[in-house]
Design goal:
The complex is a heterodimer of chains A (115) and B (119).
Chain A: E1 4-7, E2 10-13, E3 19-25, E4 32-38, E5 44-51, E6 57-58, E7 67-73, E8 76-81, E9 90-97, E10 105-106, E11 110-114
Parallel strand pairs in A: 2-11
Antiparallel strand pairs in A: 1-3, 3-8, 4-5, 4-9, 5-6, 7-8, 9-10, 9-11
Chain B: E1 4-5, E2 10-14, E3 19-21, E4 24-25, E5 32-39, E6 46-52, E7 60-61, E8 64-69, E9 74-79, E10 88-96, E11 107-109, E12 113-118
Parallel strand pairs in B: 2-12
Antiparallel strand pairs in B: 1-4, 3-9, 5-6, 5-10, 7-8, 8-9, 10-11, 10-12
């Protein structure tokens, strides 16, 4: 069964809305979670690395004020897309790794459509 | 330079045949891990197989095997006895271990290969 739960599965909302996506590790503690963005038929692009209790590490070119990441507990990380615009429409997917373990376990992803 | 290269945008295979999906990588890190993931059209990422840089033997998981050629820096995925359900996008990914710290576990993905299995 799924070891990482991501919610919601899809979101359609108006331009200017902020959208929060949750990523939960279900049966393990995840000290590190990762957030990716994927355009149709393209690869996964890492947006940021989320560590419990500390600030996220963003990849070059990712606006940290636009994509707010919070990793408040060992089982939950959230990504908030603030003031979303149509160009933010994409597939967002999170992953988590167990402490000292591999591989990364992925959530099922969130399809975000901004009208 | 690309760290992970998958040169086959699309591959076709007949059901029950074997297929090889290519992956080459570039790293100067002596310790790294190589992964293959399957992504069906529904979007979820399914872990298939893992090979560590120090592993002496090629990894196998059921119908999946990884042809690891360290000197050539290649980590091709072999799927034996293809099934219709194998049709999906396949990604090769690498984890470099020297980074450590807060970026430990970070994966770099290849461009992906779309595999289509014909009946």
């Amino acid at each position: 069964g799924a070891v990482v739960s991501q919610h919601p599965s899809w979101v359609i909302c108006k331009s200017g809305t902020s959208v929060k996506i949750e990523c939960r590790s279900l049966d393990f503690q995840a000290t590190t979670m990762f957030w990716y963005r994927q355009f149709p038929k393209q690869s996964l692009m890492l947006m940021a690395t989320s560590n419990e209790g500390s600030k996220a590490t963003y990849e070059q070119g990712v606006e940290k004020d636009k994509f707010l990441i919070n990793h408040a507990s060992l089982t939950l990380s959230t990504l908030t897309v603030t003031s979303a615009h149509p160009e933010d429409s994409s597939f967002y997917i999170c992953s988590a790794i167990r402490q000292g373990g591999q591989p990364q376990h992925f959530g099922d992803g969130t399809r975000l459509s901004i009208l | 330079a690309q760290k992970i290269t998958q040169t086959q945008p699309g591959m076709f295979v007949q059901e029950k045949e074997a297929v090889t999906l290519d992956c080459t990588y570039d790293t100067s890190d002596p310790s790294y891990g190589l992964f293959w993931y399957k992504q069906p059209s529904s979007g979820e990422m399914i872990f298939l197989i893992y090979q560590g840089s120090y592993d002496q033997q090629n990894a196998t998981e059921g119908r999946y095997s990884l042809n690891f050629q360290k000197a050539r820096k290649s980590a091709n995925l072999v799927i034996s006895a293809s099934q219709l359900g194998d049709s999906a996008m396949y990604f090769c990914a690498m984890r470099e271990d020297s980074g450590g710290g807060t970026s430990y576990g970070k994966l770099t993905f290849g461009q992906g290969t779309i595999l289509t299995v014909h009946p």
